[in-house]
Amino acid sequence: MDKLQPLEKAVAAHLIDGKFIARQIRDELRADVTELATRGVVPGLGVLLVGNHPASRSYVTAKEKACAEIGMLSREINLPETATPREIVQAVETLNAASDIHGILVQLPLPDSSIEQEVLQTVDPGKDVDGFHPVNVGRMVLGLPAYWPCTPHGILQMLKRSSIPVAGAHVVVIGRSNIVGRPLSILLSMKHVLGNATVTLCHTGSRDIAKLTRQADIVIAAAGRPHTLTADMVRPGAAVIDVGVNRVEDPTRERGYRLIGDADFDDLLPIASAITPVPGGVGPMTIAMLLHNTVQAARRLTNNEAKG
Amino acid sequence: MDKLQPLEKAVAAHLIDGKFIARQIRDELRADVTELATRGVVPGLGVLLVGNHPASRSYVTAKEKACAEIGMLSREINLPETATPREIVQAVETLNAASDIHGILVQLPLPDSSIEQEVLQTVDPGKDVDGFHPVNVGRMVLGLPAYWPCTPHGILQMLKRSSIPVAGAHVVVIGRSNIVGRPLSILLSMKHVLGNATVTLCHTGSRDIAKLTRQADIVIAAAGRPHTLTADMVRPGAAVIDVGVNRVEDPTRERGYRLIGDADFDDLLPIASAITPVPGGVGPMTIAMLLHNTVQAARRLTNNEAKG
Predict the structure, then answer these.
(1) CB contact under 8 A, B203 and A198
(2) DSSP labels, B88-135
(3) Pick from B153, B113, B177, B141: which is nearest to A146 by CA?
(4) What is the CATH superfamily name and number for domain B149-283?
(5) Residue B176 distance to chain A (closest CA, Å)
(6) Rounded-to-integer distance, Cα A142 and Cα A155, Å
(7) Which fold has domain A39-124?
């Protein structure tokens, strides 16, 4: 019991509260939505869900609920798991053509993951609020106006709003996925107010990752594998962002599992200057930035119409 | 004089001969061009030059000469320096529409650099053999088939053909330009036969670059500034790739200047396991890969027509 007291203190000092920061962003967006309403515009998110996998279903529901809470419209197309590629593409085209839909989200994974690239490339780049279309990725890399992918952008916002210095910092990212590690490493090292860091990108082909992470001011674990980041891999005082969401069996829970990140949270808490929990860390930020991109899309469309 | 002997030996052992490797690639491409000719296809490069700046003129001439040498077609549109943005865009559209032109090169910088992005985005992505169009950049980042930008691709080929191991190596890249450092850092860290390295990208916002370069197996200097990489910054036995081409005054030369790289070549030669000279290192590779992309474009178009 003696040891519990300082640990609780540490938690209070160290924890990066993703739920809180996401709520802060949603509050700002609510003000934007209210302002747009005075111009007769309601930002609309179109959601395409194929099949009804429980995890995908619950993500989609969370996103729709988040839209409603800040006064945005959402419209869902839910196709059966047996939908043909043609039907899926047509559903995207329907959302592309809908004038009250400003952003489109295709919930991944699709039952047939081999058609994902084709489907994603069907999304109108101007409505690609997930930032997955090659045009958006390219524009982001070149520093042109673009929709930044939601999870990487959410992490940049977390760091900024937690007053963790990024400019000039050495950031080590573990994981090179197209939706997190790769775009995050790019955005962090670009010259803008949320970036300008020196970034090292590690992955399954890397040797001696620990040697690199131990030098980092910020370590970001985005490998999708528990225990990717252990306590011996982090310099005391470094900040840790944990992007992983891994299910591990837990018979003490009613549902039979619990969620853990890629980092050994309990061991890192006394070492890191700041750390995100899982759940309640990066996760809520992703939805907040999806709303952000959709509001941005609505505003841009409105401005273009005013110009046109 | 005593010291000259070992230094000359070192040169022989260390030097990565870009001219030689580029010639090797051009010889391979000549065979491809001959094969395509049997199917009635001559790969064609369209070149747009605005104005007649001596450096740009000489680059364009070198590229056209390289085309001719391997049996490729090249066609130049040379607009006056006073050409309007509309005229420049129309010239690109002419090349887009030309059925005997498979690849398009807009020689940069344009006299008015503020219109470069607009002009580059006018290039048909299927003919964008420089790999500068956002669609190509995005496709490259996502690991989809794409034209890789010529200088980064040339460097990957140099490393491979010099038997310098890249997979698993720690590569430190200095410079984050859209045409070299940024795409190079991405390509090096992707999972393919020329990549899979652990990459750190340094730039003008980085602190203590020397600490990072001293840990690298391969250091790539692409900052565009002489003396960016000094001898104390490189671990003995590391490989050095020098992308810089800088003019420095030299009254002993007839033209009044000489070209030097970003690395202190003479000081690094005894330290590095391998190093590229300037000129004669990376430079010739860029043209070779431009030809490579154009041959690839011609082949792809031909295959598509055969399918259609």
Answers:
(1) yes
(2) HHHHHHHHHH-TT--EEEEPSSPSSGGGHHHHHHHS-GGG-TT--SHH
(3) B141
(4) NAD(P)-binding Rossmann-like Domain (3.40.50.720)
(5) 8
(6) 20
(7) Rossmann fold (3.40.50)
Q: How far apart are CA B204 and CA B82, in angstroms?
A: 35
- The CATH number of the structural domain formed by A149-285 is 3.40.50.720
Segments making up each domain of chain B, as ranges: 40-125, 149-283
A152 φ/ψ angles, rounded to the nearest 5 degrees: -55, -45
Q: Which residues of B are catalytic?
A: 63, 107, 130
CA distance B247 to B72: 32
Given CB atoms, is B210 within the 8 Å cutoff of chain A?
no
The answer, for A135 touching chain B at a CB cutoff of 8 Å, is yes
Integer Cα distance of A46 and A179 in angstroms: 20
CA-closest candidate to residue A223, choices A260, A194, A190: A260
Chain-chain contact of B117 with A199 (C-beta, under 8 angstroms): no
**With an 8 Å Cβ cutoff, is B276 touching chain A?**
no
Closest residue by Cα to residue B166 from A270, A236, A276, A205:
A205
Chain A residues in contact with B135 (beta carbon < 8 A): 134-135, 138
CA distance A207 to chain B (A): 6
Cβ <8 Å between A135 and B136: no
Confidence class of residue A5 from pLDDT cuts 50, 70 and 90? Answer: very low
Phi, psi of A35, rounded to the nearest 5 degrees: -65, -45
Contacts of A121 (CB under 8 A, 6+ apart): A133, A134
- The CATH class of B40-125 is alpha beta
Q: Cβ separation of A176 and B197 shorter than 8 Å?
A: no
Number of H helices, E strands in chain A: 11, 10
CB A263 within 8 A of CB A103: no
State pLDDT tens for residues A275-286.
999 999 999 999
pLDDT by position in tens, chain B (length 308) = 344 444 444 444 489 999 999 999 999 999 999 999 999 999 999 999 999 999 899 999 999 999 999 999 999 999 999 999 999 999 999 999 999 999 999 999 999 999 999 999 999 999 999 999 999 999 999 999 999 999 999 999 999 999 999 999 999 999 999 999 999 999 999 999 999 999 999 999 999 999 999 999 999 999 999 999 999 999 999 999 999 999 999 999 999 999 999 999 999 999 999 999 999 999 999 999 999 999 999 999 777 665 44
From CA A17, how far away is CA B291, in angstroms rounded?
52
Least CB-CB distance to B134: which of A138, A170, A207?
Answer: A138
Q: Name residues 187-206 of chain A within 8 A of B (Cβ).
A: 189-191, 196-206
Please state, rounded to an integer, the average pLDDT across all residues of chain B: 94
Give the pLDDT confidence of B57-80 residue by residue, as tens digits: 999 999 999 999 999 999 999 999
